[in-house]
Amino acid sequence: MTWATLHRGFWRREKMSKGDRSFDRPIVFVHIPKTAGTSFFRYLEGNIPAACIAPPFLGDLNKIQISDATKKLFWGHFRFIDIYRKLPDAMYVTFLRDPMVRSYSQYKSWHDPRNFPSDDPWRKVMTPDEIDDVEFAQSVNFEEFVTSPRQRFVDQLKDVQTYMLSNEEPASPQFLRSAKENLGKLAFFGLVEEFDLSIQKLQQLVPAFGSYRLSSDRENRSREEEMSLSRKGRERLLEMIVNDTDLYKYAVGLF
Questions:
Q1: DSSP readout, 188-233?
Q2: Distance in Å from the first CA to the final CA of the chain
Q3: pLDDT, tens digit, for every residue of 73-110?
């Protein structure tokens, strides 16, 4: 499949509002951690030629070949506003997830040593303290993870989805409002809880994209387990995800 074939679906949609012209905007996947991003990226990867996919984002936007016009898919854990400043005309896509479930999935990801092997590329750009936090998380339960004073644990839980989509910092009174406004501007967003329907909606936007046919071993899905928290732990977590909870309810309404 060529990129010309891929973007014909985009062109048909854009023609109604922008006139008869060719369409050649890249897709930017803002991968919010623990929102089925691996599965979604594998799906995108299966529909876009490998030569058109930029390198993964590992903390430095200058190393993902943004200026290369042949790259048609950029992806990674970058904030919307950071990548938008460099690619304002791209098509932005993302997935959101129930904040409580996302938080538990984040814990399980850090807790499982298989997700942070010795050859993980992130180890090359992480500080010793950052590595220590991830390795410490492998020794604690969910309650201890949620109630820990370690700042990096807090950062992995506190309004992560709002932070990734907002133009503002958490202390700003416009923090949540900005995230909602940006969500409405995205070309596409999906919900993990409605993954299949989300893919169908994306196919309506991009008719050239095929069906979702990933095998389970490529999906990186977590096993379903009970999220066990004490009353204190639950209250602390709910306090940390208050904006994400509001944002998610808003997203469900838009969806």
A1: EEEEGGGHHHHHHHHHHH-TT-------GGGT-PPPP------HHH
A2: 30
A3: 999 999 999 999 999 999 999 999 999 999 999 999 99
Beta bridge partners of 26: none
Cα distance between residue 176 and residue 187, in whole Å: 19
Closest to 194 in 3D by CA, of 255, 105, 152, 107 = 255
Least Cα distance to 254 among 22, 94, 113 occurs for 94
What pTM was computed for the model? 0.84
- In the block, which residue shows the tokens 């070309």? 187
Q: What CA–CA distance (Å, rounded) separates 162 from 32?
A: 10
Q: What is the pLDDT of residues 104-140, one digit of tens each?
A: 999 999 999 998 888 888 888 889 999 999 999 999 9
DSSP 2: -
Burial environment of residue 52 by CB neighbours within 10 A (0 to 12, 13 to 18, 19 or more)? middle
The helix (run of H) or strand (run of E) holding residue 234 is helix 231-240
Angle between helices 8-18 and 195-205 (to 10 degrees): 60
Q: Which residue is associated with the tokens 């409405």?
A: 184
